[in-house]
Amino acid sequence: MADYDRRPPGGHHNRKRRYRDDDDHYDRRQQRRRIDSAPLPVRVRRQLLGIADSPLRRWAEEVQSIAQMVADNHDDENLRSMFLDLVIQLLLEQPLKTPFVAAVVLIINTLKPEFVDDVLSRLAQVTQDKIAQGAWRDVKLLLKFLACLQSLLEGDGVFPLLEELFSRAADLQTASSDDTIGTEIVKIILLTIPYIMVSAPGQFQSKAAELMEKTDIIASEPHALQALVDPYHAQGKEASPGASLSVCMLLQKQLQAEAGKNWELACLPRPWQMPLEDIEAQDKLANAPKHALPAISIPETVIAGPRPLFPEIYFSVYSDQEVPSVPAVTDIAASLIRDGLLDTINILDFNRNVTARYLMDLDCYFAEGTFVKRATPFDELRNIGPGKSTWKPEDVAVDTVFSQLFQLPTPERKLVYYHSVLTEACKLAPAAIAPSLGRAIRYLYRNSPRMDLELSYRFLDWFSHHLSNFGFTWKWAEWAEDTDLPDFHPSKWFLKGALDKEVRLSFAQRIQKTLPEPYLPLVGPEKEKDVPDFKFSNPDTPFAKEGQEIGALLRRKAPDEDFQPIIDSIQSQAAERALDPLVASVDVFVTAVCWVGSKSLSHVLACIDRTKGRLLEAGNASDAARAQIISAVMAYWHAHPGIALSIIEKLLNYSILTPFTVVDWALVASTPSNGTNGGDALVQPHIFELVSNTISKVTSRARQILASPETDDETRSKEAKTTQDLFRAMNDALVSWAGGSKDELMEEGDGSSDGEAMIRRWGQRWLRVFKRMGAIEEAFALEAGKAAANKKDKMAMDQAEN
């Protein structure tokens, strides 16, 4: 019977459906109202987490709804505990929502004032703990929330706490001009004041003025370390644009200007201001009970915390536009908006998708009218009338990410995280973000020659990575004329480096199809070969026969003793030709290793692993032989420097090469076999990458040893000295290149040509980067030494007491 279908043919004969649906199949029955059956704490949590996320919901309604639920169910212990925990979590993880969470607490104060005491008590305890730990960003976020609650606090509210914090900052600055904790505390105080003035309008103006008069002493003076972290490297006697863009200095000036405008603070949201039709709720807020802020003790000696602090410079990629699409540096909105966004980006590093979504929804968290409509074309900004904002939310978001990507000495998170945030933002809103990124790229390309070399390299690295996510498409025709520039020009340096990175991320033929004709020489036919030619295949090459024999033995995985007769033959022939026998044999052997291992990185690693003993022996025999190992690898993979750098990194891991060998080969040139090439190495992006990676490897290892509590004093001092010696060697070489006194440079001319002037400029740019690195590592070693000494003293005291 299963084969028999009882339904009549033709279908659509359901009588019940025919009577309840209309001709368009619309169900006319009354729809049931959906009931949220989730437990109350879950509903409150859901609403509080989503507060202000939607531009379609009114702030006042959201705030009142959550506050009413919490107040009505105040007796529920589970709800109270969840709410207190979630408030702290939101403040520390989603700082853009701080004013809205504060508004919920302000409304609760009109309904259940006793619950606010629990909130303040928890908040005071957490703030005190964070100050003791030196977690200054968390302290700033908690103080911002307290500032938003200023209207419900008794007396002067948050001001006594801020004044006590300032007294600690003043003591630290008096003790040392290099101190960064004091500067950080002053910045926190200045960022807290606007939220106090917004929460309690028309009040505390004299208190704010008194506090700002005190902070002016520290904020208006350039920090001793400011020049170290300036993103711009001015040439000659030019003044750096970053000299007057210290974040602390800007904040002080911006707040003074805002005080002159009666603390307008137009960009900040005021979710505690109810709509006109809800006068009753507004009256309750105005007459709500006041609460004493629980005591927050600040230790006599405050600490820097786990992350090293440095002065901050305000960096913007939209600073030279005819129509301002981001707040001007004279406007307090520039600092307040960026501060909230920066914290969001760096805190939510575990989820780039959510971070990108917050960037796209930026306008939801600030006052209406702060930004133009999303995805407004830049050309339309010119048509906006006077008195109205021309700030594009996409530009502000992109500008903030770039400010982190180009932060010196290092940003808080890995560089690739900021790459991924920009990529996700582009995927979420390509029509809005792509034009903003285009203008940012053009600004960076124009200004790359006067930027710090490390930042120029970061730009090159990000640019190629970003294009790889979007089909390698870019308007290359705009820069076509720059392909004719000499190789030592910074723009040509960028183009060569970016295209090389693109080839690494794809393959040459693919990249060539995306480029106009003038660029093709930069991606030459040699890059199309996955396996470079083996120079010893040509019988006219010296030692061709021996090179082929060694290659055959390596392929057969022959034992080590089989190589010795061939090596002896090479060395005897080299001696007859007045060549260094060891250097000649190393060149043949390493080139053969590269050729046999050219199929993949695993092949070359296996080959190196089998010949490690011979390579170690050759490297230990002479510095020239060790330098020749690098020269042979770089020569074989000259068309694919990325592969050469990977092989050299592995040779460093095997201790076949030393960091000093790499630095000497690239910069010092103490042996005949080197890669300086009369200063040409300074204008090769991959050489900068090689040296930077090597130094990073050294400093990372040194930091682990210095910071380890198990390291004894002798090991600690030996490690610190090794690192210092490496930086000293680099510094001496780079000073010579920068001053034009390097032997190779002097042999080529009298120093008056454009090429020699540019080599000197490149030497200066390199010198600045590695001088900064050396200073930072030296400071780290000193701090690690102090920490170890303090720990020993504490242990000795504990033992004495016991």
UniProtKB/TrEMBL annotation:
GO BP of this protein = mRNA export from nucleus; nuclear-transcribed mRNA catabolic process, nonsense-mediated decay
Q: Where is the composition biased (Basic and acidic residues)?
A: 19-33
Compositionally biased region (Basic residues) = 9-18
Q: Taking every annotated instance into account, which residue ranges of this chain make up the domain MIF4G-like type?
A: 327-517, 534-778
Q: Which GO terms describe its molecular function?
A: mRNA binding; RNA cap binding
One Pfam entry name: MIF4G_like
Q: Name one GO cellular component term.
A: nuclear cap binding complex
Residue ranges for the region (Disordered) are: 1-33
Please report the name of this protein according to its UniProt entry. Nuclear cap-binding protein subunit 1
The protein's organism comes out as Fusarium piperis
List the taxonomic lineage: Eukaryota, Fungi, Dikarya, Ascomycota, Pezizomycotina
The gene is: cbc1
